[in-house]
Design a protein that fits this description.
alpha/beta; six-stranded mixed sheet; 47% helix; 14 strands; 22 helices; 504 residues
Amino acid sequence: MEKIAIIDLGSNSLRLVLVDILEGGYFSVVDELKETVRLAQDMELDGFLQPVRVAQTIKTLKMFRRLCDANKVEKIYAYATAAVRKAKNQRGFLDEVLATTGIKLRVLDSEEEAQLVYQGVINSMEIPRGLIVDIGGGSIQLIYYNRKSLLEHVTLPSGAVVLTDMFKAEGISAIERAERIERYVTEQLEQIEWLKDIAPDTKLIGVGGSFRNIGKISRMLKKYPLDMTHNYTVGSNEFESIYKNIRPLDLDKTMKIRGLSSVRADIFPAALSAVHAIVDYIGAEEIVVSGGGLREGAMFKYAVPSTNEKPISDVLGHSIYTLLNFFGENIAHAEQVYNLSIQLFKQLKVLHKLPRAYVRVLRTAAMLHDCGNHVKYYNHHKHSCYIILNSNLYGISHKDLVMAAFVASMHRKGDVNTVEFMKYRDMLTEEDVDAILKLGVIVRIAESLDRSMSSVITGLTCDVLGDSVIMKTESEGDCSLEIKDAMSSVGDFRRAYKKNLQIL
């Protein structure tokens, strides 16, 4: 197994991510570090990276290098973006970094940066049409795509750090400063011709620390049960409320906002004003926060080379198989349980009447039902529930992830942990709760029908006769173990489907 490092030197933050490269085109993050270096601060004075900022950056890179060496990292991919790209002393800075740390920074042009950000988003989200907004310290990237094709992109030369510096004049109120930033950003947006023609169903996808903080504030206000950034949605009305409450605050009060990183408090208001200008300009109904961006794009670029030509077509599937490979699970068994589960879902359609949208939940639960074995075999169904809830899987909504976790938890005992389940009850409709019960029984039966993990049962046919369901199995050998184990689910089946079950 190969270990690589991704270093992302932005205008505000410097980040290191250590990544294990798994066989088959998968990868897993195993460690990360972040330091706020403010490399773009005061650059507007003369266009040069300031000595104190350079010193802090090099000190941090030395620390990163020590961690890479300690972890026997084989390759370091280090990228620098807007601040270094614009710096008049770029060459001297790059030479000093290489001489003192041994790290060769690659300065991305705006197109290369947009491509990596796009790869990080498109391979981790299932949103057909989106406007990716990446607010960094020194620039704002706008990337428009449709059906996994990048159509347009532009870089605005004013990120959160730069906007904060530009509008820090003494004697004006926080509200006046916010209004000036909004007007300035809106004027820049008005110069982008293609932005005027984006489709009305385009989703605004937020990338970067400012958007992550917006999501975190929202989750804390709502007491959201999942501490999960990726794919979290903030409605435009909710964002408007957050903005109106933060906009008048001075720095001391901004630093006390729950959910906001203290090291970002001074530049967050400027970023928030920029976001508000963009939301208003395109008429976005919601913001979808992405945990994937440039660093994740670099990981996909290296670990999954095919994504350099074509994005992943099955985002959820790739994410599920990443987890299965990371845990060393029995993939053939997982695939067989899902195969039998989908057969049961189709055969029992007349009884459960669930829409096809729930297949995503069924797939996730069936494929990952045994991942709790990585903790311990005993009560592994409970451990599987926990792992799925905290897996941050790509390509699935938070609600579907919660449902899949509790469906998987039923594959041995036939019921859910009521106390744990109630933490997430407000995320679910009555139909969702009913679906969890019915899908849980399906996965439990399917898992039993591959009890020997030998794929002996090849097909299923279900006949609904009066108050009974006759389930006929097709097999390639002795399946007495499988049928006996599946029959332990008849009580759960009756409870979910109001029918008796016979398995032949």
